[in-house]
Design brief:
The protein has about 240 residues and is of the alpha/beta class. It is built from six helices and nine strands. The protein starts with a strand and ends in a 13-residue tail after the last strand.
Amino acid sequence: MKVDILAIAAHPDDVELSCSGTLLRHIDQGKTVALVDLTQGELGTRGSAELRLQEAAEAARIMGAVARENLSMADGFFERSRENLEKIAQVIRKYQPEVVVTNALDDRHPDHGRAAKLVADACFVAGLVKVPTYEEGQLQERWRPHALYHMIQDRFRQPDFVVDITDYLDQKKAVIMAFRSQFYDPDSEELSSPISSKSFQDFLEARARDFGRDIGVDFAEGFNVARTPGVRDFMDLV
């Protein structure tokens, strides 16, 4: 199943929080999107791994993603190993995306920066003919995405570019709230966490408003690049 965009992130809800508005915009334009979570988020303060999997499936349904997979790496402890690189390379070759979106280059949660490096390395490995991976017993063709973009997460980073999500903010909120166990619920009796307060929801909207201000729109999401993107002409940037 070839897709246009493959979003790969450390935890279920990383994508929803930081770039789902952009993905919704592209899906609305007819692009196909698949999601891959490296871990089940089993170390999260609230909920459980089983519940997070259910919530992730619901978020993907609301978003309109064509597929979602979980690679079951160890939350908090996954490493840059050949096994993990090949796991990610396998899904890159399976979906053959033009664009991969992944975690922030560095962030408050150490998994985010570690995942960013792991996914970037796996994008390179997926293009190597002498690293074989298999799907249902069949040797996969090598594939290297044309672009890799990093979302901006908890810590502020100056974006290299931003995407207007003004028309998709309400849908983004609905996608995020599919993870009901993780976010603000005044009736919850579970322990609080940095993302479970009402103020965190306000922060997300304020961040989107801040990014939007730079391009004269109400709301936007920001991204970083590790490799300078190329354009055909000035008009691509208008």
